[in-house]
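Many introductory courses stop at the sequence. We go one step further.
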Amino acid sequence: ANSTLLGTYNYNKEQEKMKFGIALFATVVMGSGADAFTAGVRRSSRVSPLQGTVSDELGTPCEDECALDSFPNMPPSVHPGVVSGQAMIDLLDHAKENGYAIPAVNCVSSSGINACLEAARKNDAPIIIQFSSGGSQFYAGKALDNKNYAAAIAGAVSGAFHVRTMAEQYGIPVILHTDHCAKKLLPWIDGLLAASERYYAKHGEPLFSSHMIDLSEEPIEENIDICKDYLARFSKIDMLLEMELGITGGEEDGVNNEDVALEDLYSKPEEIFQVFEALTPISDKFTVAAAFGNVHGVYSPGNVKLEPKILSRAQAYISEKLGDKAPADKKPVKFVFHGGSGSDVNDIQEAIGYGVVKMNIDTDTQWSYWEGIKKFEVKFHDYLQAQIGNPEGADKPNKKYYDPRESMRAGEVNTVERLDQCFADLKCTNILGLNKVGEAENVLEPRRGGLPV
C-alpha cells in the first residue's frame, strides 16, 4: 500500500489535493503496525491506553536503563523516548521548579540527531530536537520538489520517525519540536499537524510534541488570533504551542532581521500578559518566546545587549494581574530563549531564574560539526588527497580515511563536546538520575562496520 501511494503521489497537484495526499500517506504509514504498537504497551507511565513504544512496534527492544518506565529523579509521567502532552508539561515544570533549561538543537540530518541524543545521555539530561522548514527540506533531499512545502513536510516527518526510533534506544526523554514558522510557512505546519492528528488517532499521542508559530512580524492582534486558532486545534491532541512575541534579531534559515528596529527586540510586560490572557482559557500547553534583545548567530562581544530582567518584570506584572490565582513561584509563564548561541553564560542563567525552560542552539552546533570535520582533515590531510598514495607509500590505499563515516563521526564527537558546555551553561546536567554512561560494547572492526581511524 505504501509503494502504491508513493507512486501515485503527485507533487504538482493543487495545495488541497497535496494535503489530502499527505493525510492519506500519514494514515497508511502511521496506521501500519498499529495493532503491534498497541499490543506492546509496557510503560505504566503512558497516559493513553493506545500509547506504547516504537521499540515494541519495530521489534528493537530496549534493554537496561532505556527500558525504564520512568526516571529516578523525574515525575513518573516522564519516560524514555519522545514525550508529549502531560509528560511534556511535567518535564517543563520540573525544569522551571529546579532552575534549569533544556537545550533545543536544530538538526538537519540523522547524524546531527544522533549527536544530540548521545550528548543528552552523556549529561544525564533531557533534550529538545527541532527542525526548521529549511532543515526539514534538506532532510528530505534538496532534489525533491518543495512546491507547497511537500519536501519540507516529508523531511520533518521522516526526521520525527528517526527521533522516535532512536530516542528510546538512548534512554532519555526528548521533546520533538519544529522551529520558526512565519505566516508564509503555515502550510508546512498544516501538513505536519495533519500527520500528528492521524498519528494521535492510532497511538494516543501526536507525532510531534510541539510546534512553534512565529508571527512576530505581524500586528500583535493578528499574531494572537492566529495562535489562538492553532492552539485550539493543538489542544485536541495534547500538543504544545510555542509563540513568538517581539523579533529575534540576526539571521537564521534565510530570515534576516539584522536591520530590525531596536525597540522591536524587547517585549513589553503588557504584551506578554495580553498573550497569556488570550491563550490560557484555551490550554495551558503553550510557551512564549519573548524578545529581550535576542539575536540569532554569533557576533563580536558588545554587539548583543540582552536584558533578561524584561522576563522578570513580565512575570511580576502577570502575577499581580492574576492576584490569588498566581502560582506560588510567581512565574506563570514558561519562557523560551531564542538566539542562545554565543550568549553570555551570566545572561543565560539569569534568564533561567526568570522562568526560561528552553534555549535554542543552532549556530554553535553548526560550527562545532564543521569544526570537527575540519580538524579531521587537518590531522589526516596527506591521506585525503587521492584514493591511493600517502606518506606510507605511493601504492597505499586511503579508503579508511575518506570513508564518509570518519569525517561525519568527527563532526558528531566535536558537537557532543560543544553540547557538553551547553548543558552545563543551562544547569541541565545530572537531571534524570541515571548511571554514568559506559563505553559502547561490541563495536565492530572496520570490515564489519566499525570505524578504522
